[in-house]
Every structure is written in C-alpha cells, then in structure tokens.
Design goal:
Largest sheet: 5 strands, mixed
Number of strands: 12
Number of helices: 18
Bound molecules: protoporphyrin IX containing FE
C-alpha cells in the first residue's frame, strides 16, 4: 500500500450546502458536521477540515506542527490593527513554541492543583454568599434566576479576585470579559466588533490602573505575585497587561456557563439528588458534566505547511477544526455518551483541550465548579428548574444563561 492509499479522506459537503459557510450559525455548524456521522468532515472548498473523534482531536491538539489561530481569526472579522489587535497580539493563546512558553511558564506555577487549592476558602465564601442571594430571591418572589444570582456572580467574583480586582468591580469586568472573548470566534458582527474594541480599550486601562495600585499595595493575588517576580523583566508592558486581562476573561464565561448548565443538566437527567445524598460524587460529576457539554465546544489550529496528521493530508493555509463536543461524545470511548451518569468516571476528557495550550485555569475551574455544585446541592436539596424558562446561548461558548429556579 502506498502512502497515498493510506491517507484518510473526509466526508465532503457540497459548497451549496456547506456547514462552514459564513451564513451558518456557530452551533448549527457544529450540529451539522456531527450529524453526518463521519470522523472527518470538510466541504468542496477544502478551507477547513474538522476532526471529530477523540483520538484525532487529542492528536491534533498535541501536534506541535499546527499553530494557534487567534490572530488569523481576528483577521476574519476584518481586524488588522487597533486596540483589540494590539491586546490579542500579546496573548499567550495566539503564540506558539518558545514565545508561548515564555509567557505561560511565568504563571503556570500559580495554577497547579496545589496553588489552585489555596483559593478554596475564598471560592466557598463567594458561593455561600451567592447562595444567600438565591435564598433571598426565592423568599421574596418564590423563584430565583440561577444565572444572574448564582452562576455568573460566582464565576465573575472568583475570576476577578484571582488578580486582585475588588468584588465590587466584578460585574463591570464581566461585561468587558464577555465582549472580549467573542473575538476568539471568526466573523464577529459589526456590533460585536465594536463592543470588543471598546472592551479592549476600557479593560486595558482598568488593568493598567489596577497594576499601578497593586504595585504600591500588593495583595494576596496573582497580579501582585507577578508584579514582584521575574515577569516584569521577561514581559513587555503590553504582554503584562494582556496576561492579567487574559487570566480574568479566560475563564469567566466558560465557568459561569458550566455552573448554570451543569445544575440544569443534573436536574434534567435526574442526577441532582445523587449529589445531595452523596457529595463525594461531586468531583466526578463535574468532569462528567464538562464531558457532556464542553463550554468551549470547538477549537481550531492553523496548518503552516503541507503535512500529514492522523493519516490526513493537510495543505498549507487550511484550518484544522477541532470538535471537543463530538470527541467528548465519542461512542468508541464512552458508553451511552448522550446520558449523564455522575457515577461514571469519564477519566481524562478533552473539555479543557490538550497539548501546549491545555487550559491554564483547569484546576481552578474544576475547584470552582466542585464548590459551586456542592454549595447549591447542600443549600437547596429540593431545587427545581422550570424547563420552559431555560435560555441557551450557543453563539460561542455554550451554556444556559437564564433558568428560573424554585424549591419543591
Ligand atoms: C469550565 C471552565 C473552563 C473551560 C471549559 C476552559 C476551556 C479551555 C480550553 C478548551 C482551552 C484551550 C484552547 C485551545 O487549545 O485553543 C483553554 C485555554 C485557556 N484557558 Fe481555559 N477554560 C476554563 C476556565 C478557565 C479559567 C478559570 C481560566 C483562568 C485562568 C482559564 C484560562 C485559560 C487560558 C489563559 C488559556 C490559554 C492557554 C494557552 O494558550 O496556553 N480558563 N481553556
């Protein structure tokens, strides 16, 4: 057999019915590429090749020949200069190899399991106070919105506190964070683009002031630790600002959506009571919930040269689409992948990615989710959510953004 014969061929959509067309909404594209049941999908233009099986997805993410696409993605929204472009060009997400390691290694020590564990008491305190808010809303009006009273404020406060942002500013910062992360997706609308540009200016200025304050009065936070480390010698001022901003917006929307969707999925799949009865199941349940719906369902990498990856010939300039959602539902890896089973140990699942860009905040995110689920199940053992009240946002990061909760 020749090398050519050994190459795998993707399922090819005709151009007139392409899920990769700019007109197809983000989530529809994901659903349509999964619906054909192939593990490799492209269209007649061949611009993008999507990988869908768990083994392919892991191999693509860990292949050092493929490159980050933060900057080319920005270009697809027509952004070639300006404040957002400047901020993005300093982010670790968009860098490869030694340049990427230079930034990431400066903060990686702050996100080990042990370092993340140091935040447990503060996260528990935040979750407890937000649960008080849920209780107050239910006492006053009979119901509470899980997103705005619990999931969102827990995430925004935890991620703000991480770098020394006062809790009072968490809501303001979350607006910037949500506007900025849209820029990780291609083809922003003019409105999204304008909001992201504004957020880059305003959040950039906010971070500069914050760093000035922490330089004079350091706190027990990562930005203060960085200010008093070799990071100041290694990073340019722009990279320093981008890094601190990145630590805030990197995990804010994903964590908030994982909390809200997680609670709703536990209730919908009759698994909530199991956690009330046995909180020891919570860490496994967190992993299973992230597997069931990875908040960041697709990633992408660029192809800098013609190469063969997983017996797939990729051409220079093509985009390798990486479908974490389908990888996390790979039937060859998970029995009944469409069911949530909090007793299942999904083992190493790919909701946090893999390889050099593996989620920097994964340990902190897991800790926050564990605490959020533990607090809600302990405080509200008879919680229920009106299924008709659920609002989903799948435009970028996937998850529930409104859910009317009551007590049975
Ligand atoms: C449930 C919550 C979270 C999920 C599902 C998630 C998911 C991911 C994924 C899939 C990636 C890989 C992106 C890629 O390979 O292109 C990533 C990267 C990243 N995440 Fe998270 N994340 C979460 C929370 C957080 C938190 C709390 C932080 C805060 C520090 C964070 C910071 C980052 C950063 C800085 C990167 C870029 C890492 C690099 O380029 O080396 N994430 N995240």
């Amino acid at each position: 057999m020749t090398d050519d014969q050994a190459l795998r061929q993707p399922y090819v959509f005709p151009l007139h019915d392409s899920p990769f067309s700019i007109e197809v909404a983000h989530w529809d594209r994901i659903q349509r590429t999964m619906a054909v049941g192939a593990d490799l999908v492209t269209d007649e233009s061949g611009i993008e090749v999507d990988f869908l099986s768990e083994s392919d997805v892991e191999a693509v993410l860990t292949d050092p020949r493929l490159c980050a696409v933060a900057m080319p993605t920005l270009a697809l929204s027509g952004i070639h200069d300006g404040p957002l472009h400047e901020l993005w060009s300093d982010l670790m997400n968009g860098k490869d190899g030694a340049e990427h390691r230079r930034i990431r290694n400066l903060v990686a020590r702050e996100f080990t399991p042990k370092a993340s564990e140091r935040h447990r008491a503060a996260v528990a305190d935040i979750a407890e106070r937000m649960a008080d808010g849920v209780q107050r809303a239910i006492d006053a009006g009979g119901h509470a919105d899980l997103w705005s009273t619990y999931a969102m404020p827990v995430s925004s406060r935890v991620n703000s506190r991480l770098v020394g942002i006062p809790e009072a500013d968490a809501e303001l910062v979350s607006v910037w964070a949500f506007d900025l992360v849209r820029a990780f997706l291609p083809f922003m609308s003019p409105d999204q683009r304008q909001r992201a540009e504004t957020a880059a200016v305003e959040f950039g200025a906010y971070v500069d002031e914050l760093l000035e304050r922490l330089r004079l009065t350091p706190g027990d936070d990562i930005a203060s630790a960085l200010l008093h480390s070799d990071a100041t010698d290694v990073l340019t001022a722009g990279e320093f600002r981008a890094l601190v901003a990145n630590l805030v917006f990197g995990g804010m929307e994903t964590t908030a959506k994982a909390i809200a969707s997680g609670i709703c999925h536990l209730l919908e799949h009759d698994q909530y009571r199991a956690l009330v009865d046995d909180p020891a199941l919570i860490p496994g349940a967190t992993s299973e919930l992230l597997r069931f719906l990875p908040p960041s369902p697709v990633l992408a990498r660029g192809v800098p040269d013609d190469l063969v990856c997983q017996h797939v010939a990729l051409k220079q300039g093509q985009v390798a689409g990486i479908n974490l959602l389908s990888a996390c539902h790979d039937p060859s890896r998970y029995a009944n992948p469409g069911e949530i089973d909090v007793h299942r140990d999904p083992g190493k699942q790919l909701a946090f990615g893999a390889g050099a860009h593996f989620c920097l905040g994964a340990n902190l995110a897991k800790l926050t989710l564990n605490v959020a689920f533990e607090t809600i199940t302990r405080r509200f053992p008879t919680l229920q959510v009106d299924p008709d009240s659920l609002v989903w946002d799948r435009g970028g990061f996937a998850g529930v953004v409104a859910a009317r909760a009551t007590l049975a």
